[in-house]
Amino acid sequence: MDEPALTGGICVGCGICCDGTLFRTAALLDSDDTAPLESARVTLVTRPSGERAISLPCTAFRDQCCSIYDVRPHICRAYKCQLLQGYEAGDVSYEDASGLISATLALRDRVKPVLVRLLAVDERAALEELFRLLLARFEMGSPFARPLPRKVDLGGHPDDVLDVLPMTEPASRLALLAGGATVGELATRQADLLRRYHFATDAEHGGDRDGTLAERASVSHHLGDFEMARSLGVELVDLRTDTLGPEHVDTLDARECVAVWTGQAGNPMRARELHADLLADRSRILGETHDSTLGSRHELVDWTGLCGDPEEALRLGLELLTDLVRAGRDDHSGTLALRHSVAYWTGVSKEASVTLRLYVELLTDRQRLLAEDHSDTLATRSAVAYWTGAVGDPQAACDLASELLLDLVRTSGANDPVTVAVGRAAAFWSRQCDPPEP
């Protein structure tokens, strides 16, 4: 098919290869003129391999067609999807091809908004990227957690140690907190939390407004109302700024909570900005090597990835890891946690074999430094099982997941949500195995 016919054929009105549905990037040749791309404000990136590429969705794709068609790069001229190949060969009619395109676009428009809300990422992210993030979120370690949930302490009540787990359903959060409780027990737990919220008064805390706000923010977080937690956290930051000063460590800690809850409430871009601002202040006030400063750098790694930029998250993570190793903190818990994050974002950005190697190395060190039943060790075992299957060995993945399942049933109970998730993973890999020889 010649190009004039093609422009009036099935490609116009489709653009699935341009809008991020199929691909995250499109490779450029050295001979490609980037001036038209730059004029159209197309984002150019460098792949891990060093190749230049267009970041998709392509901003030159407008109104379901290419706005720089006559000067488009080589890859855009050369690429032909299987449907187009079948159409050009006469194996697929125009009506069938158009119908398939319309159905695909309708499915994309149904699925993408859901994934954007679920993952709390920029709506401009490529659909392929969203599926990779979703896969990583639910298969690597815990199905409920982002790379490495870390503890944030508001001070005051012992229960104000906040487990930063951006899960999708309040019931799942409560189940995790309750350790696999029954529905009735969950309802009781929720009622107790609500009572704590409603009866958390200044008088109960000896006239301490700080303690009241911290209590209510904690309960709102545990109930999954991240917007309320964020709002209360902002009020707490203002209070501590007035009473303790903007550079007091407790004020800085409250700012970290606000940053986390901002992201969990659905604004990861703003969360990343808040973490970046906090990192700058902690570096200036506490020093570059203070644990809280290093913790802020780790938070910035993960929120950068959760904003839909796993390559930059990986770069920041490797940079921080280099600094920690150089400082002789190889076996520090924070370093191990960061290595989990680095492996996580490697899994989103690069090939599975590299990711598997990182997780296997991390598992060896966690088994050496932590107890076999430690949650971090178990989470790493889950990741090793998943990536073993991802590199093409479903039988080994099934065996690893099944062994982990037995340990989780023993340590956490059969109804624990993580146990259930690992059980599903074992069943999944079992179905991927070839049937036994007769």
Give me some keywords for this one.
19 helices, Serine Threonine Protein Phosphatase 5, Tetratricopeptide repeat, mainly alpha, globular, 7 strands, single chain, 3-stranded antiparallel beta sheet, 62% helix, 5% strand, 438 residues, two-stranded antiparallel sheet
Structure description:
The chain is mainly alpha-helical and 438 residues long. Among the domains are: 3-126, no CATH class; 351-438, Tetratricopeptide repeat domain (Serine Threonine Protein Phosphatase 5, Tetratricopeptide repeat, Alpha Horseshoe), CATH 1.25.40.10. The protein has 19 helices and 7 strands. The strands form 3 sheets. It has a 3-stranded antiparallel beta sheet, with no helix packed on it. It has a two-stranded antiparallel sheet with strand order 4-5. The protein has a two-stranded antiparallel sheet with strand order 6-7. Helix 8 (183-199) packs antiparallel against helix 9, helix 11 (249-264) runs antiparallel to helix 12 and helix 13 (291-306) runs parallel beside helix 15 (333-349). It is globular, with a radius of gyration of 25 Å. The termini are far apart. The model is unreliable at 1-8 and 138-187 (pLDDT under 50).
> How would a textbook summarize the main sheet?
3 strands, antiparallel
Low-confidence stretches: 1-8, 138-187
Going across the biggest sheet, name each strand in turn: 1-3-2
As a whole number of angstroms, the C-alpha radius of gyration is 25 Å
Helix/strand order: HEHEEEEHHHHEEHHHHHHHHHHHHH
Number of helices: 19
Count of DSSP strands: 7
Amount of beta strand: under 5%
- How would you describe the shape? globular
Structural class: mainly alpha
Helix content: 55-70%
Average predicted confidence as pLDDT: 78
Distance between the termini: 50 Å
